[in-house]
Amino acid sequence: MKKKALMAVLLITAMQTVHAQQYFTTTGFAGFYSKTSLEDIKAENNQVFAVIDVTNKKLAFSMLLNGFVFTKELMQEHFNENYVESDKYPKATFTGTYSDNIDLTKGGDITVHVSGTLSLHGVSKPFTTTATLNMANGILTGKATFQLTPGDFNISIPSLVRNKIADKMDVNITANCKPKN
Amino acid sequence: MYKYRFLIITILLVFSVTCKAQDTSLLKMLDDSMTSTKKHIPVTGTFKGTHIINIQSVEAPAKQVLLFWIMHRFGQLSDGGYQLFGLDNATMRFGFDYGITDRLSIGVGRSTFEKTFDGTIKYKALRQTEDNSMPITADLFGGIYYKTLKYDDKPYLNTAYRTSYAAELLLARKFSRDLSIQLTPIWLHYNLVQTTSDKNNIFAMSVGGRIKLTRRTSFNAEYDYLPEGQVKSMTVHSSLSLGFDIETGGHVFQLHITNSQGMIDPVFIAQTTGTWGKGNLFFGFNVSRAFNTGKKAKQVN
After folding, report:
1. Tell me, what's the ipTM?
2. CA B182 to chain centroid
């Protein structure tokens, strides 16, 4: 009898994984900004792939670094060639979880604490930030704003341009995810 | 009891396995859909500059970017200490290149040699893509060269006689992040040549390339092969140039040694009189500065 019950638990667990409710997008947004008195840098990517699994409270982001569009073409070339080396390390990814017990059906912005692994330029780092989730009309929007330090990811900035590039980049992420299938 | 414990462990194991699989499978799922929607992304940075050394490279200023070039070639190293190994006899060219679109650019320049003005146009017809659906970059290049030097003894030199042309097909491939090679078939036309035995139409082939030494510096080499029998009134040689590119933000510095003192195609391709063997070498440098002129560049908030 006990055995049967346990089998049922097992099956239910398996079922849950199969029917995990996932929200997905291929047109998420990522932007980063650097401001110094000498030069402002703005780079935006509208081809961010993101998935949020609300059943298991897991999420993942992946983007091609050469998808970032800069206001200056030369900056874009230097970003890809000299800084992130997108030929060697084409993607930036994040995979993680949010732990908070939240009720998405309530609507409105709900703040969650996200933690996981951020990978960029061949370096993977544990990373935590706060983010907001918002469920409206069946679309789950995830947003996060945080700062990244290029040096943490082995991205070296030569002294000649040191004062044109901020020590920390302001990063904005927005993903409007639709239910998957 | 034993069975019970066994089952608990199994459940825990299964559960933890599903957890793990989930974590990576989310990322894997993203990667899979990314691969299936991958576009043909054009390769960037085949060369650092719009010139390999003397010859035009497949690179051109991006849309609404104005590129300012200053090029210097000093005198021959073989001139010796009296001329400070050529530093006393510099010739130079300066020029502006402007990107009308990301594929089309135009340029104007002036060289001190024979007080020559030049106008150029470059069109990027094919772009190499990262997935190799297009394996090469191909540019069409056209140049018109007009020398304004006054000759008291040659009053017949009218506009037509002072003009020459260049048409080139630039074929380049970035083989890896470190190695790029360019082949350039060249057709030059001179409205006036020195003697009747010289050809008005000259065909040449250039091969050039770069090997990156660090992320911001590269070693460049260029050989502009001029088949014999086309220029007879003077002894001319093919042009061989070796140099380094150093890129710093908006500047590209190119330092090189070459047996050609001219910096425009009709001069360095078919009027190179020096050879490496005799020490007829010229030290030179090119410096470029990029200026963004478009509205887009100013919209940074």
Report:
1. 0.72
2. 9
